Each structure stands twice: as structure tokens, then as C-alpha cells.
Amino acid sequence: MNLAQWKKTTASWSVYRRPGKQYAALPTEKDLDDFERQFSFQLPPSYRAFALLMGPGVVAGLCTIATPGCESDLSDLIFLNDYKRKNWKKIADSLHQEMTTEGLEQLGRLITMAVGHDGIEFGWDPKDVSSEGDLECGIYLVRRTPKGHAERVSASFDEFILEFCMGPRFYDFFPLYPKTPDDPDYPFSEPRESFDPVPSKKRRKKD
Fold first, then answer.
1. What dihedral angle (degrees, nearest 10) is formed by the CA atoms of 199, 83, 108, 165?
2. I want to staple 72 with a disulfide (CB 3.0 to 4.6 A). Which of 99, 146, 162, 201 is the partner?
3. d(CA 6, CA 25)
4. Rounded distance between C-alpha atoms, residue 93 and residue 126, angstroms
5. Which helix (H) or strand (E) holds 35?
6. How many CB atoms lie within 10 A of CB 61?
7. Eight-class DSSP state of 23
8. Please, what are the domains in the chain?
9. Which spans in 69-182 are helix H?
10. Residue 106: what pLDDT?
11. Is the whole model's pTM more than 0.90, yes or no?
């Protein structure tokens, strides 16, 4: 999806911007370009358009989409991937018994783009590029306790937003989540058309 298509799609969403509250800045084209150079990865067009329009935020109450240039660590695309790169050996050592060799290799190359509840993450696999020539990448779910390998949830970013976060595909991977208003975890457990922008938050300066 391009910028115009995202504008049309998000027009009906509930966007929770509260008066008087400051929110994380939207990324610029330069922020996105800088990320691509730093991590040698071409961001999918649908993600670039979404990031420029919406910025970082929680989609459907389920996961936080990260963008570069954000002041909040877990919502900053650069921070998430820089942390992973710097701590990869420790991460790999902690997961080698839970994951297959191929799964661990894939996890090492995933570009984290969103985080969810209970420590789950979502990332692009640079080797899983669309054959349609649109530069979209497959997106994979990494559970806190991986099932031997990451799980493919979508073939593109817009599919991830519309069919996984806001559609029924979420329940294919989390079938035990409550689905009715009578359940105590409702409504975040039910995909819906909403976006909660990330508040502005300065990082603590290191001593």
C-alpha cells in the first residue's frame, strides 16, 4: 500500500491522540534512509508509507510498530535492532536449546519491526522477499519461548496490519485468547481498527 492508500484505510480507525499530550515524532524520509544504510536492509514500501503517516504506535491493542528516530526505546526501530545486533551472542546462547539450527540462523537475520505482549517480537526476513517485485518481505512471529523456529504470519506489512493485527489471522497463532466482552482481557485480545500513538519519552542519559 502507498501513502494515499494508507490515508484512505486509516481514516476510519480510532486514533487515540489526547489533547495536551506529546507524542513521538513521525520519522522523516532521512530517518528511514539512515536505517536502511545502517542495517543494509531496504524497508518495504508499505511500511515506509505507514511509518511516515502514522509514526510509532500500538495497532489494535496488540503490538507496537517501531519506527526510526523515535525517542522511546522499544518503539525505536534503530534501538531494537542495534540492541539485538550488539547482544546477539548472548541471545543465541540462551535460545540454542529451544530452536533448530535453521531457526536460530533465521532469527539472527530477522529485522525486528514490532513488539507485542509477553515479550513477543515480529520481524522481516530479508531472505523472504516477495516474488511480485514490490520489495515486500515476509513477517515472522518470535515467541518468548520459540517453537523451534519463527512463525510466518504475513507476506507483507499491510497484510500484517490488516489481516493479522486487525483480522482473524491473529487467532490462528493465539487461539486461546478470549474473544467476547465477558472475558477479563477483552477488548485488547480482539483485533480491531485502532491505533494508539507512542507518547514522547526522552531516553535516560547514561552516567
1. -10
2. 201
3. 18
4. 23
5. helix 29-39
6. 16
7. B
8. 3-197 (3.40.1580.10)
9. 77-86, 88-95, 101-109, 157-159, 170-173
10. 86
11. no
